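Troubleshooting: if your tokenizer reports a length mismatch, compare your output against this known-good record of 672 residues.
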Amino acid sequence: MLEAHNLIGSIDEFINNELKGWVAEVGSDEKLDIELYCNKSKVWSGKANCHRKDLLLSGIGQGDNAFNIKVSNDYLLKDNEFEIKLKGESETILSKCISVESEISNLNSVDNFEVIRSVVSSAFDSDFYLMQVPNILLEGIDPVEHYIKFGWKLGLDPNPAFNTSSYLEDNELSGENIEPFYHWLNKGREAGISASLSLYPAKELTRSEKVVMPYFDFKYYLETYPDVKLSKQNPLVHYMRNGWKEGRNPNSHFNTVCYMLNNLDVILNQCNPFLYYVEHDNNKYLSYSETDVVKRLLKDKIFHAMQDITFPNELAKAEKVFVMVVPEHNEMSGGIYSMFSIANIVKRLKPQFGYEVLIVTKPNTQDVTYCRQKNFRNSEDVYRFNQITRLRNAKEIYLNIPEYATKNFTEILTNEEMSFLKSVEVLNVNILNQNTELMPDKHSFQDLREISNNLTQSVAHHSYFGQYYSDLYDLPTLLLPAYTDLSGYNAVQHHEKDDLIIYSLDDAPHKESVLNRIREKLPDFELIEIRGITFDQYMELANRCKYSISFGEGFDGYVAQPIYQGGIGITVYNEEFFPSEDFIKYPNFFESGVEMLDGIVDFIEYFESNVDRYFSLNKELIVEYDKLYSFDNYLEKIKGLLSFNFDLYPGSIDDSKMGVASYKLGLSSGNI
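Known-good structure output:
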């Protein structure tokens, strides 16, 4: 009946003698003249008379399409059929039978809605759902709630295995105003009714298909390749098993053929290009369309030319060179900032240790590179890794590689690069262990040991610094905590800050629930995710915000830097990254995601009402951080790195003493 009028709507619930619902005409913002009938008798007439934010955010008119209609309790004493009609027309556009005993009559009432949400949530795929609806439309609304109230009426699917429209059509439920997924989970499944699968069940997807699924655009693929839609195949499965071989694209940003042409190793190894891209590319948000490829190739040619022209003569002549390998994409992270910081200090220590400094991008098959890090203040030129072969006069090279890049590092090197590294008289290799979760096992370093007998690690966090980790990786170990110079950024007090909460882009199971809880309970606070901005822009937000939330490591810059700017950082305690359990005593460090969800609103409300306590907590946290991080200590640690004076050595005490002697002498060479 709705289709005849091009209308959508819902009769939702009785609360306090009011019948609540909404009705709207597709493509129109006008309020409709409607009439309410109960058991064929008209009980009310008028226009939609209230505003609902959830309707507005879901793109249903201006949100003024809702109605709250006063109805006598007499109508609730038995089953009654309520109908909504357009004023002056006889045809019913909405109908619903409601009684006190009705199982789903009060869809939005707290008790029944939570029951329905619980059932639907058990099989709901939020990531899949969000791919069907632009995120901006869901801002402030839980995906499950959106589906229950609106999504199924718009033909959206709750997971890849359930087709909403097909289920309604197959079971003649289209005019019944019954949420189909709940119906199937609660009744249809037990009755043996088919789920009307238009896609393969998730359990039938391969590991590879599950890996790429978050980045696959189902709607784009079906619209671009109508033959797949006609065949009623799962578009994801079609692409992963056949589509990529036919040159089809998984989304509007990734061009399969262009990627393969620019990554010949993918062709030679017969890899699925999109899977390879998702698993191996450091920046999942990097687009790879045909236009992007042309632009990138032109840009890289310019970068290469600039790097070739500007390569310093003093480096070509240097006998001692400290080489810092950085990610090839010009992005921002705390780890990248730390790499440039270390390189800068080594350059300043040249009078004492004699190293020239060369920063190079990680070797990669696409030969991606850049000339200057644009995301934070620095004056360092950046070169390609293959330019290391220009260090013809070098007798000693100190190569520093981030942990994630060490596995099979030499496999990607050219014969010329390998020959050069093996020819260097003394080649020292240090692994920058900035995140122990990215650190490979010790067997993965075998190729590095083949070119250097002096393999070491520097660790950035106190929590994974110790004899255990030195033995685990079989590496001499130096504690080298990251240090960020914030002297150019002045802290501000609570009363000068905005009602702003910033949060990290990391994924965490509790992230969306926490953010939605804040949006619901603290509507005056603005929430901003830190993504795609420079360090200066980030520090401006860190200065303005009252609170910051890290959904990642926890003991990181998302927490620390806002604290130094006069704010309070909030996170879940993580023993992998926190230096000790003592930090749990502070109320801003929760013991679990569930505890954060339950307590974060009360935490913020308390400190907003007790500004003196806010100030004292901030000072207590600064004292704790100052115990761990200082420039003087940072400088001494880098001196220890350059003099091969490591804190710990693997193995027995006797072995460690021998290690001290050999490492201090720098007796390492690929030829020994």
